[in-house]
Amino acid sequence: MKELIHKAETLIEALPYIREFYGKTIVVKYGGSIGGKELHGFARDLVLMKYVGMHPVVVHGGGPQIGSLLERLGIKSQFVAGLRVTDSETMEIVEMVLVGKVNQEIIAAINSLGGKAVGASGQEGNIIVARKLDISKFAHDNNVDIPEGMDLGMVGEVETINPHLIKVLEDAGFIPVIAPIGFDEMGRSYNINADHVAGKVAGALKGEKLILLTDVPGILDEEKNLISSLTEGSARDLIRKGIISSGMIPKVMCAIEALHEGVNKVHIVDGRVEHALILEIFTDAGVGTEILL
Ligand SMILES: Nc1ncnc2c1ncn2[C@@H]1O[C@H](COP(=O)(O)OP(=O)(O)OP(=O)(O)O)[C@@H](O)[C@H]1O
Ligand SMILES: [Mg+2]
Known about the structure:
By secondary structure, this protein is an alpha/beta fold. It has a single domain (about 20-290), classed as Carbamate kinase, CATH 3.40.1160. The protein has 11 helices and 14 strands. The strands form 4 sheets. An 8-stranded mixed sheet has the order 5-8-2-1-11-13-14-12, with helices on both faces. Helix 8 runs parallel beside helix 10. The longest helix has 25 residues, at about 90-110. The protein is globular. Adenosine-5'-triphosphate (ATP) binds near residues 33, 63, 214 and 247.
């Protein structure tokens, strides 16, 4: 009996959080680096969120999955400042892996647990209107060096997000799952960093929260200790010092931008930890790193 009462208490403890986030949009970025093993738990957390009245929207990455297919096909990739140089042959693979594989796997996992997921790339409903990445601006904004005249091919950035389709889906009880491929007015497709897409989607939806799930406990300092909250100023400082580097740079930058665009809270959380999403939403435990302005 004691055990049952404890179970009931645990449910009751979730009440303030359910009340706070009921009907609110929570954008979750699922890092490609997390791996398939954790997908089932992630999908279960999403389905629970949806059934208690929250509106999770998923944006996913897929860098490692793209890398492994390119390798199997013998196509070499070059990285510049953490960005994959994307020629048209590589772009074809990027789209196939993200839209045809990773996106479908996430949908299957959600649906197998009783959720209703709908997949989309940036093309469906024109969700992601993109343009070629402005490299010199990117280098300047992110404090990184990119050789003059470097062409990264089909690496893009978000021009605008059209949130209409996402809203229709979330109101109809679906969980939208978005692959980070954007399109320009000529129908050309672009490979876009998924953190950047997630930040822009959260901004366009005026999301309550943006949660970036990745393969580290959060942002780590020089001694590899977790930083539990980080302001814009110190984040820029850590990037300048090279302590925040590679894939963590777009996460921090998109977090700051999302906050400026009206998203209430942004967290970088370890997606490999069981129930990471639930812990973040239903407790004050403060897992991972919170980014503050
Ligand atoms: N200060 C830092 N603290 C924590 N991780 C850092 C830091 N600086 C750089 N990193 C790197 O950032 C990585 C996370 O970004 P990465 O792009 O690799 O994964 P992801 O964004 O979750 O996946 P994907 O890009 O496929 O969507 C970490 O694995 C770590 O190597
Ligand atoms: Mg990344």
